Amino acid sequence: MKTLTRSIAALLVLSASLLAQAQNMAGHWQGVLQAGKDLRVVVVITSADGLKAVMHLIDQGLGQGIPATSVTLQGSTLRMAFAGIAVTFEGSVAADGNSINGTFTQGNKPLPMSLSRANADTAWKIPEPPKPMAADAKAVFEVATIKPSNPAAQGKLFTIKGRQVLTINTSLADVITLAYGLHVRQIVGAPSWVESDKYDITGQPEGQGMPNQNQMREMLRALVEDRFKLTTHREKRELPAYALVVAPGGPKMTKNDSNPNGLPGLLFRGLGVLPVTNATMADFAGVMQLAVLDRPVVDRTGLQGRYDFTLTWTPDETQFASFGVRIPPPSGAADAPPVLFTAVQEQIGLKFESVRAPVEVLVIDRVERPSEN
Fold first, then answer.
1. Helix or strand or coil: residue 184?
2. How far apart are CA 173 and CA 187, in angstroms?
């Protein structure tokens, strides 16, 4: 009985010690990441309900912090993972508890980074997230410029930065697929330049605040109809498609309830590396349809809400055609990531099923090269 009592007492002491250690980590930590240029990083750690962390990349112009998917403290070793952007941090906490000497790793690129505990006087100010555009605001551009892209530019980008909507190295077909939620195969009757001519678009909306994704799409639709004189009609046609469904065993993604009205993050970190944050299944299906797969994608998961995950795979020659890049042959390395269809099932618990489905197509009735800015 005495042995049991001593064991319980020791366990209580250990639990109290671990709790105190975790509580001591709470605070505002900051450091400079040297990634070609100095980037300030702030990590806010809390301990009220187990260790949690939110990272702020305050020189990147991001509108919101990035929550960690896991935070652990074992002895003096702190580990944090931010799965949505494929980032990990591992560091050794100094004996005085005021600094952490560690490594920031994104993908397979480790960079040294030390974090120091800040106080009210030394803490870097975390920028306020931009206020969202009002839901009833008119979703049109007050001013927009359309310029030919640099012919040497690689890849393409759609993004929202503050109030601005930006596209870089995008064809009109790319813009239409995003604005109307389509795969390029769903565009019918377009002249060849619609896919070959590339543009950079910068637009600022009439309404104040940051537009959401639906407002961005609505503004792009108005833009192409005005500046490219686009007129269309819709038809239903049966096309080869992929149905996104839940795999046996269920989803393996992290639910994100932090910002249900925020923008999703779906920015590729290379061909076959897709960190996803705060995204719905419709968002994920949309980016796979828009950028990766060779046919439309229909979301049949039935999953509600938003999720974080990172998908890593070895692409094949049928993928990323819209990026205009040539996929290298598989390396055959033992540690190479799996092919896409295997990775989706193993890493996030979903499946792409090949189907034929009635799909709405957009038939081009009229289109012109853009008017002058």
1. helix
2. 8
CATH number given to 12-118? 2.40.128
SS3 of 19-75 = HHHHHHHCEEEEEEEECCCEEEEEEEEECECECEEEEEECCCCCCCCEECCEEEEEC
**Which two three-digit tokens encode residue 73?**
């403290």
Q: Are 323 and 155 in contact (CB under 8 A)?
A: yes
> Domain residue spans in the chain?
12-118, 141-366
Distance CA 289, CA 293 (A): 5
Asked if residue 139 lies in contact with residue 219, where contact means CB atoms within 8 angstroms, the answer is yes
- H or E stretch covering 311: strand 307-312
CA distances (Å), 148 to each of 29, 172, 198, 225, 372, in order? 43, 11, 6, 18, 11
> Assign residue 97 a region: left if phi > 0, alpha if psi is -120 to 50, beta otherwise?
left
Nearest C-alpha neighbor of 368 from the set 157, 194, 199: 194
* Nearest alpha-carbon partner for 315 in 304, 325, 306, 302: 325
d(CA 8, CA 346): 41
**pLDDT tens string 29-87:** 999 988 778 889 999 999 877 899 999 988 876 557 888 878 999 999 999 988 656 68
Q: pTM for this one?
A: 0.65
The token pair at 50 is 């187990």
Digit-coded pLDDT (tens) for 234-251? 999 999 999 999 999 999
